[in-house]
Amino acid sequence: MSGKENLEQKIFTRWIETLFETQEHEIDCKQFQNYLPAFVEAEVTGERLGYTAVLTAHLHQCPDCEEIYQGLLFVVKADLAENWSSDTAADTAVPIGD
Amino acid sequence: MVKRSNEAWLDALQGAGQSQQEALLDLRDYLVRTAFVYLRDGRSDLLLLSTDTLYEMAEDYAQNALLAIQDNLDKFRGDAQFTTWAYRFAINEAATDLRRRQHRDFSWEDVAGQETAVFASLLDPGTGGDPDVKAEREEFLQLLWQILENDLNERQRLALLGVYFQGRSMQEMAEILETTPNTLYKMLHDARKKIKASLLNQHYSAGDILGLFDAMW
Ligand SMILES: [Zn+2]
């Protein structure tokens, strides 16, 4: 099996899956981005919001929003781990901008 | 740096004088840090760039994010930490710029040929194997091709091809189609609904289709 066939299989399989995940009503990118900060925080704390399913549905269909979601999740976790936005942040966090 | 509640951030940023200046400086620091950590550790495509370069990029993204945040303060809903809301602007700035750098050449002349080639390679029913299965595959592919041709307009087919088959970003595809990513999303949603409905109408489920092609790969 060649790499090309693998890639085509991946693309085709993913496309069929997302196609059938299509909902009659989906939120658009603007709506998704409005809910994103709370969604990411809920993800970090393990809380489940009432609108999680709607947001997840958009994520599966939209590569750009997926990218923003992954990025925000990453930095919010880093903030929590290194305590940036608390008053103890200054000395423990990433040493930049001196 | 002072720790602030959401209310304190808003009061300071919407206010004036020294407390506003301090809040802006603090927020800028947060945004630079956020953008830098995202570029350095949160992405796998920038490993070859130096720390200095990444830091300069982070400063630019933070500066743009800061302006966008000031323009959008009245839209903060208070359903998350103010900093989480603000970080979104920094990530957006970075991701948007990095996507733009990855945009590939695109010419309308190539599209027709490319469209046919991509679908043809994906939709090749394959050789060998069970002739019955092969015939079923062919039948499905003909149906799919018909749906794409008849139910979608040219822009929808192009959007579908670019985003799902060529892996272009919504942003890049939106620029090609001279629309916004938000409108593109709606266009694709409409296209997905049509294709899904037509396939279900012909009694195809996702499992049926993937099963049909399983042995081929
Ligand atoms: Zn989106």
Describe the model:
The complex is a heterodimer of chains A (98) and B (217). By secondary structure, chain A is mainly α. Chain A has helices at 3-21, 29-45, 52-61, 63-82, 89-92. Chain A has a domain at 26-85. In chain A, 71% of the residues lie in helices and 0% in strands. In chain A, helix 2 (29-45) packs across helix 3 (52-61) and helix 2 (29-45) packs parallel to helix 4. Chain A is globular and about 45 Å long. Chain B is an all-alpha fold and 217 residues long. Chain B folds into 2 domains: 6-101, Orthogonal Bundle (Rna Polymerase Sigma Factor, Chain: A); 108-214, Winged helix-like DNA-binding domain superfamily/Winged helix DNA-binding domain (Arc Repressor Mutant, subunit A, Orthogonal Bundle), CATH 1.10.10.10. Chain B is 75% helix and 0% strand. Chain B has 10 helices and no strands. Chain B has helices at residues 6-14, 17-41, 51-72, 82-102, 108-123, 131-151, 154-165, 170-176, 181-201, 206-214. In chain B, helix 2 crosses helix 4 (82-102) and helix 6 crosses helix 9 (181-201). The model of chain B has no long low-confidence stretch (mean pLDDT 90). The chains are: A mainly alpha (98), B mainly alpha (217). At the A-B interface, helix 1, helix 2 and helix 4 of A face helix 2, helix 4, helix 7, helix 9 and helix 10 of B. Bound molecules: zinc ion.
